[in-house]
Amino acid sequence: MNRKAFLLRVDPALLEAIQRWADDDLRSLNGQIEFLLRKVLAEAGRSRPHGKDSRPDKQYDTPGQA
User: Which of 12, 30, 32, 42 has the fewest Cβ atoms within 10 angstroms?
Assistant: First the structure.
């Protein structure tokens, strides 16, 4: 899987809490942030399928659309 690096400004207390959680789950900080983002996207119904059949040009569904 390709990864894209970007700068993220985060409150230090929030970052520390995520780091503790990552340590508890035996994940890296980056892995924990990615895990949490994927989980929230899935719960909100906004995750896209992965693989060669996924359509990168397709936009996420917006509320009120079928």
Answer: 12
